[in-house]
Structure formats: C-alpha cells, structure tokens
Amino acid sequence: MVREDEFVGQAMEAAKEILKPPLLVERGANLLYQITMNNRLEVDSTDKLREPSRGQSAFQTDLCVFEKVSPDVKIPRVVIEFKPGITTHDVLTYSAKARKHKQVYPYLRYGIIVANERAIPGRVFTHNEALDFCVAAASYKEARVHELLARILPKEVEASQRLESIFFGKAPVHIFRNEIVLEAGDGRIG
What is the pTM of this model? Predict the structure, then answer.
C-alpha cells in the first residue's frame, strides 16, 4: 500500500529527471480558479495573477508542470493529483477543480494517478466531466514510476501546447476526438 505523500515524492523526482527546460515541475503549486474585475473593469493585480495563493481564488495542486516562457511568467501545462484509491467523491471533487482551473487556463491538462488501483474504476467514467486522464498505477512497480511519467508527461505537455495554439487562433482544427487507451493489466507500458 503506497502512501500519497511518498508517491508524490517519487513522481516529483522522476518528473525532474524527465522534464527539460523550459519545462519545470513544482509540488504544491497554487493555480487560479477565478480572475475577477473590479467596478472599473480592471483585472486584479499582476502579483496575484503571477503568484497565486491558496484561499485567494487559487487551489493547491499535488504536482504541476510549468513552461517558463519568460523570467517572470510560467504557464501551467499539466496538473497531476495523486490518490491512494479513488472514490466517487474524489472524482467529483477533482473534476470540479479541473473545470474551474480550465476556466482560467483553457489549455491546461489535468489528471489523477491512483497508486493502489490495478484498473480504473467505472465511477471515474460515470462521474468525470473535466479530467483529461487517469492512471491506475498499482500494476506499475515502484521503479517504473519514472517510465510511466516519461510516457505520460511529454504527451500531456504537447496536448497543452496544441490547445493553447487552438485557443489563441494559431492552429486550425479539422478533426477532434477523445481517445481511450487500453493497456494490458500486467503493468506493461506500450
């Protein structure tokens, strides 16, 4: 039985090895879920926008991959939440958090890695509305966390960058589809 804190630590170390600049990973990063304007139609201060704090229109994340685009601007690309197991309440909660974050960062990819599940439970498919991925990681041995993230992170970063291009009118879209990836239950990747 893997504890959440241990699993996040292992994933953090693996992500640091996998990601190369301008990509970086942070543990416990706060991301805005709302940006408001005052009665003069002015947006909140840029300090709040660039350095969000929990409880001030921001939720804390387990791990967040950022792309550093300038010395003072980091674009959130991928959020990964970690759970030992996953309940209906977890699916509803994290799906709602993902939806709120995507209102501010529409190109953000958001997912959950479940340490002690061998297969993704049906409740994820029944109750999910805004999560982009879920991984049942119990089939993957501890030493393979690096291999698992090496496969997922680059694809999710690329998807985020493509979505950003689409949202800002830099890439035309002719076909869109969601994809379900089925893998053998023996923990093989590929």
Answer: 0.90
